[in-house]
Amino acid sequence: MDALLQLAKENNLYIVEDACQSIGAEYTFADGSKAKSGCIGNIGCTSFFPSKNLGCYGDGGAIFTNDDELAAKMRAIANHGMVVRYHHDMIGVNSRLDSIQAAVLDVKLRHLDEYIAARQAAAAYYNNAFASCDKLITPVTSDFTTHVFHQYTLKLVGVDRNGLQEYLKEKGIPAMIYYPVPLHLQKAYQDPRYKKGDFPVAEKLMDCVLSLPMHTELDEEQLAYITSSVLEFVNK
Ligand SMILES: *Cc1c(COP(=O)(O)O)cnc(C)c1O
Is 112-235 CATH 2.130.10.120? Predict the structure, then answer.
């Protein structure tokens, strides 16, 4: 983010952070100061879809900013462009958070740190179990950010991914590919400027990633079952 902020400053750009999978993560700047994900650029966005780290019971989301002018504009856009009731200053959308979802989030927000700790504990179990297996590359860790593990995604080296996914499925363990198609290969974003091969890192990852179950209720018995099942297949 240090580099991105610099680039944005030099080119007079705004930074909109997609913090949908990183809410609660903390970034440490080069100068040692810290900021939470979603509160670093000009606008941060997060999703409260039920499976997210802070999920409501349906659809919902939030946008963050420290800029009062932007805040007023975003509030108006989210409410049909109204500033004064029934007076539309701009063209907006209906993007209000339902009261029922807000009530759920009001309670759950107080527990976000516990939820993150539970995910980090599950990730630590996985990391430890897979540490000596060179066919499984565990998620990147760094000293400039904490990881809140919305997903726990392995990179597989020389492992039949479909075979592993199928094997786990038979054992009642859901393992998913996030995501199977990168942006530049999505039909919606087809553009003569971008073709297959232009983003080799994304394309390589799309073929080797597999995400294991990750949520706040994984107990040790489940984690032991999942990790031993993965290792059984990989070492067979
Ligand atoms: C979930 C998610 C979204 C979309 O959130 P919605 O609530 O469906 O709008 C966007 N970006 C990332 C990274 C996500 O994980």
Answer: no
- Which of 23, 47, 96 for a ligand 1 pocket mutation test, highest count of atoms within 8 Å of Cβ? 47
Domain ranges of the chain: 2-47+61-96, 112-235
Q: Can you tell me which atom of ligand 1 is nearest the CA of 47?
A: 7
Tell me if the pTM is above 0.90: yes
Residues within a 6 A CB radius of ligand 1: 18, 20-21, 47, 49, 59, 61
pLDDT in tens, 155-176: 999 999 999 999 999 999 999 9
DSSP calls for 69-130: HHHHHHHHHHBTTEEETTEESS---B-PPPHHHHHHHHHHGGGHHHHHHHHHHHHHHHHHHH
